[in-house]
Amino acid sequence: MTFDDVKSRIEELKAIIRENNEAYYVFDAPKITDFEYDELYRELKRLEEEFPELITEDSPTQKVGDKTAKGFNEIQHRYRLYSLDNSNNYEDLRKWYDRVKKEYENEPDLELVVELKIDGLSCALSYENGILKIGATRGNGIVGENITDNIKVIKSIPQKLTKPINIEVRGEVYMPVSSFERLNEENIENGQKEFANPRNAAAGSLRQLDSKITAKRDLHFFAYTAISEDKNLFKTHKQALDLLSELGFEVNKNHKLVKGINPVIEQCEKWETERFNLDYATDGMVIKINDISKQNELGYTARAPKWATAFKFPPEEVWTKLEGIELSVGKTGAVTPVALLQPVQLAGTIVKRASLHNFDEIERLQINIGNEVLIKKAAEIIPKVIRKRENDDFGIYKAPEYCPACGTKLIKPEGEVVLYCPNTLGCPSQIKGKIEYWASKEAMDIDGIGSSIVDKLWEKGLIKDFADLYKLTIDDFMTLDLIKEKSADNLYSAIQNSKTPTMTKFLTALSIKLIGKETADLIANEFPTLEDIKNAKIENLIQIDGIGDKVAKSIVEFFNDENNKIVLEKLEEYGVKPQGSAFEKISNIFEGKTFVITGTLSKPRNFFEEQIKKLGGKTSSSVSKKTSYVLAGENPGSKFDKASTLGVIILTERDFQVLSEGKINE
444 with 336, same domain? Predict the structure, then answer.
């Protein structure tokens, strides 16, 4: 690969990972398996290690998690929550241990604690004098969601400890597999959405705005570490776990204190099979240095502790028969083949479908209907076909020439492996997919407009695209089966109330290829009006930190497409007007100025971002020659160093307050 190819691939990987981070952490709706995500992440990390000059501070390798979800107040963590680096085989696990051991060559085998990696939602609980004060999600590790009311209804979380101490407890909220299965059965009976796996069920239940709903769900909590400024409470991780048990927490009993790496590997081998006998989901093991003084000496990378790692279990594999191939057409026109399987049990569930990704993958696998195929599954999400039996020859499934939904001849863009239907205005699967996404929570958040309503509106000819939602009347909704006047009025009102979205939500809702909410936010911060975005050229867009060539090209092509222009004109005609900013500008004193915020400040970072935008300025996640100021709090890290090297003005919080009051003139 040339340098430009590597740069382009890195930007593409960052966009894909950002989109999936958002799906996983914000919306609890993962689009790919953990294994597939890890593969993408490892590729990005490998390319950045080979080309360190291409590492940016907004890269997923430098971050933890994603933004907080809508509906909860943000809260800044007192102590940062880090992610974990992964080992996927025993060789990598030994390499991690060898790197750590090199720091302590004169010591015998190091003490390690090996624990099950619970597949749930990470939370931080703050106790003052033994009383629970705050419960928060991990969020991005620095800022999380304040979910205290919901935390208090989980029976396994004590609201008062057995000792009146100040302590922060970290742990995992999870839903037992048996409870998950019961919940899905109830949802199916009530016509509600099934959860993909126990982790999603736990996250969805914990993020209910009504804590009464959370209380009805069977949520549990395993405490796995503690932080205290009283250094005499515990000196080792094992002592911390023992203390947590004494304080009234449920600590997973399947942890073990060992010496050296060989017993760790024995535990990994043991639980790779025995985990299926547990009533909670676990997808690996966590290994930590026991001595906390050594943990402090080893420290952290930008996103993970050096003194701990996670060993991910290999996905379970099983043979079954490929009984059919279903062709699905998505909102962007991508035609995706899905394997229809002879039902088989895999990782504790019955599997009937598996991903085939694309037709190049079918060609590579040399498979067809009738083959015996090996499937594997990771993290309880849809499995994938990985190979067929040798000499099991049924030929190769032929890729379609025409769209299975509308009959249009399919195209394959240069450099891509996916077949697309170009009939953006006439393909029913594409249009309905776009309409459903437009109304979804991650886009315009129009309550009540789901696949069922969209299908009914489509069948009656009341809508042809998502713009048509805005011409619907209450009487139109009353023509649909089972829709009464009150429901019709609610649907109509929800649509009308969505007419003034932020620019970020509007761009996200348009279903532009490679554009998720985070990328949309980057664009919205740079272009104040929709007209500016429509007229933007590739060279303008790639000036934005985090926007690469492929993303920029996708945006320009979307707004130059005649069909898309028609839909945008209809939206304008119906009164849909995206707002350039969610903030009311009160001054222009920061006009043309770009700020980078780093370190720990007195208030959450988003508070200062809002202040900067209200005063006409812009924010960026990375320092460059174009940066006007760096606002630095405590422990500012590499951004401070880079600003010093480039000669960028560095502000304290007090400097910023003076500057924002207009008392500093340059």
Answer: no
Q: Is 398 a catalytic residue?
A: no
| Catalytic hit among 14, 63, 67, 117 | 117
pLDDT of 3 > 90? The answer is no
Residue 367 makes CB contacts below 8 A (sequence gap 6+) with: 322, 373, 385, 388, 394, 396, 397
Domain around 378: 316-388
- pLDDT tens sequence across 466-498: 999 999 999 999 999 888 899 999 999 999 999
What is the dihedral sign for C-alpha 619, 621, 626, 632?
positive
Q: What does the pLDDT read at residue 314?
A: 76
Q: Return the amino acid letter for 440.
A: S
The residue among 288, 312, 336 that closes a domain is 312
180-202: average pLDDT: 72
pLDDT(550) > 70: yes
Say which residues have a Cβ less than 8 Å from residue 621's Cβ, sequence separation at least 6.
Answer: 56, 57, 58, 545, 546, 596
What CATH number has the domain bearing residue 627? Answer: 3.40.50.10190
Residue appearing with tokens 């190769």 = 396
CATH code for position 237: 3.30.470.30
CATH number, domain of 345, equals 2.40.50.140
The CA dihedral of 505, 507, 512, 515, to the nearest 10 degrees, is: -70
Residue 261 lies in a domain: yes
Distance CA 117, CA 94 (A): 18
With respect to residue 99, please indicate whether it lies within any of the assigned structural domains.
Answer: yes
Q: Which residue, chain included where needed, has tokens 């004109």? A: 569
H/E element, 339: strand 334-346
Classify each residue of 628-659 as buried b or exposed e, where b means 16 or more C-beta atoms within 10 Å of its C-beta: bbbbbbeebeebbebbeeeebebbeeeebeeb
Q: Compute the distance between CA of residue 560 and CA of residue 424 in angstroms, rounded to an integer.
A: 14
Residue 152 predicted with pLDDT over 50:
yes
* 281 and 382 belong to one structural domain: no
The domain that holds 22 is classified in CATH as 1.10.287.610
168 and 51 share one domain? no
- Please indicate, yes or no, whether residues 305 and 176 belong to a single structural domain of this protein: yes
Answer whether residue 581 is part of any domain. Answer: no
Together in a domain, 258 and 327: no
Q: Do 82 and 58 have their domain in common?
A: no
Residue 192 binned pLDDT confidence (cut-offs 50, 70, 90): low
**Do residue 343 and residue 368 come from a single domain?**
yes
Domain endpoint, select from 312, 347, 376: 312
Residue range 377-421, pLDDT digits in tens: 754 456 889 889 888 889 999 999 999 999 999 999 887 788 999
Same domain? For 237 and 323 the reply is no
What span, in angstroms and rounded, lies between the C-alpha atoms of 496 and 42?
Answer: 44
The answer to whether residue 282 is domain-embedded is yes
| Residue appearing with tokens 């699905």 | 328
The strands making up 121-128's β-sheet, listed across from edge to edge, are 131-137, 121-128, 167-174, 220-227
List, for residues 334-365, the tens digit of each pLDDT value.
Answer: 899 999 999 987 765 678 998 888 898 899 89
Q: DSSP secondary structure string, 616-639?
A: T-EEESS--TT--EEEE-BS-THH
**CA 526 to chain centroid:** 23
Report the 10 Å Cβ neighbour count for 3: 10
* Tally of structural domains, the chain: 5
Is 90 exceeded by the pLDDT of residue 202? Answer: no
pLDDT tens per residue across span 53-103: 888 866 777 655 444 445 678 899 999 998 898 888 899 999 999 999 999
